[in-house]
Here is the input.
Amino acid sequence: MSDPDRAARLVEIDDPDDPRIAAYRQVRERDIGGRCGGFIAEGEVVLRVLARSRLCRPRSVLVAARRVQRMTPLLAAFGEDVVIYAAAQGVMDAVVGFPIHRGLLAYGERPQGPSASELLAAIDGQATIVCLFGVSNHDNVGGVFRNAAALGARAVLLDAACCDPLYRKAIRVSVGATLTVPFARIEPDEDVLALLAGHGFCALALSPSGTTPLARLRAPARTAIMLGAEGRGLPEALLAGGTSVAIPMADGFDSLNVATVSGIVLHHLAQEHP
Here is the structure.
């Protein structure tokens, strides 16, 4: 679609109560409570990722009127079925519920993703995946997805205690990676080790008390990196059932941010299996 065509399809919004932009109303509060099968993405970099995502379907964009001209190439990247709303900055702030300095939001549909088993079954050949347990911090989840995308992980599995990868802040921290890296939830009663083994993945359990230093690890071609929440770490059953791996640290310190750990381990595995 040409830029003039896109500009002609802009829908101007001058009333914060306009029902057509209801999906964007009071973003922070509704992010916490859920958004009925949708999600909000924020910022130019993330929207560029969303425009080409194969996993998530954008439905509309809300842009500050003052930014429309500069954003025309980005807006044109969205398909004809994506509605572009433009509002004055004050109207946009009133809709969103806070000063939205980036002046650029999108509403998308959550993917109807596969089960964890179905996702693993679709991954063939050499592969690394990441499994998260109890990671409830959105910055950490976003950071893990960013590392996964950058270092070639094929998927992320999350247990029920992990926070939502499509929460607005997690998407932003991931620089849009949660919109592109396939993910699935592990069922509460699912035997994770059996699930991974059944699909040919060797489970690596990361822990400061791990028995195998990362530098000595010779991982097989299909590897699952298991990471727990900071403080609690992985459940004992996973530590006992997987290959226990540690990242050696300076004396008197035994803690790394979970997203940092994911980056270190993924980089190590990428060097082993380029």
